[in-house]
Amino acid sequence: MKDLELLKLIQYFFHGAGNIGEDHKGISCYTFYSLNEICSILIPHFDKYPLISQKLADYLLFRKAVMLMKNKSHLTDEGLKTIIGIKAFLNKGVNEELKATFPKSIPVERPVVENKLITDPHWLAGFISAEGNFFLNVYKTNTKTGSGVKLVFRITQHMRDELLVKSFIKYFGCGKVYKKTGKDAVDVMVTGYSDITNKVLPFLCEYPVLGKKSEDFKDFCLIAELMKDKKHLTEQGLEQILSIKAGMNTGR
Questions:
Q1: Structural domain boundaries in the chain
Q2: What is the pLDDT of residues 60-86, one digit of tens each?
Q3: Is 72 exposed, middle or buried (CB count within 10 Å of its CB: 0-12, 13-18, 19+)?
Q4: Which CATH superfamily is domain 121-251 in?
Q5: Is 36 exposed, middle or buried (0-12, 13-18, 19+ CB in 10 A)?
Q6: Which of 3, 49, 101, 104 places its Cα 20 to 30 Å from the Cα of 240?
């Protein structure tokens, strides 16, 4: 429920369309159930402002299914089988029960999406609001305080969007890509203090992070200021920084 207000802003943008509720895990969700609203509001929006990640393939399949339903094709045996075939390539695919019910679904090809470079700063800011993470690494050192600190900005995506993730590096002019061991995911991380303070923070001050994550960003900036003043090199300053860290992300 932490980003309920952000969902309300999105719903307001779409003129009150869609429904806000909770799933079985208590997570807030913004959902379109009305075919009319999907056709008149959602589809025109994403046709005008297309996705640039591999999720675009899911959208194109979704759009195809919507158009079939709009034309009443789902009321025919062939049309319904085509829609089931589309669902097989959407997100998590078709469950076993649906496979048993429709064993002769008509297969479709998943669209091939070329990774596109990031050009719109507003898109990037929105993406960071959803997928970015701001946190602090603390490690042992031989300094007076016995601990060192490092600011970390990270974005994690599925392996299929590795090229898109690499375009973050090109956009910011900093960062590295790390493949997660044993997982189909990649991280792009910026850890250099000067890169964070001279490139990442100025960008996000001009194009703000939205939602509850904005509070983590504010704390991130506060720690950066304390580090700028060398506070992390003193026991009192380090204690202050660790206190801020304890209240970020899952600690909030």
A1: 1-31, 34-114, 121-251
A2: 999 999 999 999 999 998 888 888 888
A3: exposed
A4: Homing endonucleases (3.10.28.10)
A5: exposed
A6: 3
